[in-house]
Amino acid sequence: MKRAVKEHPLEIRDILRNQRINSKRVPGEQAYSVTEKIFKAGKVLVTTIQRMNLKI
Q: Where are the domains of the chain?
């Protein structure tokens, strides 16, 4: 993912690229979001859903 910095906004091509990457990341990131918001847990530092379930 590309990020904008002060006085250097992203180009349209970079914005579209970030949206394509984001659409692929959403299913994996939702599990972490549920853990943090609903279960009021801290940051999850494990990498797979199976390990996250074991940690919970």
A: 12-55
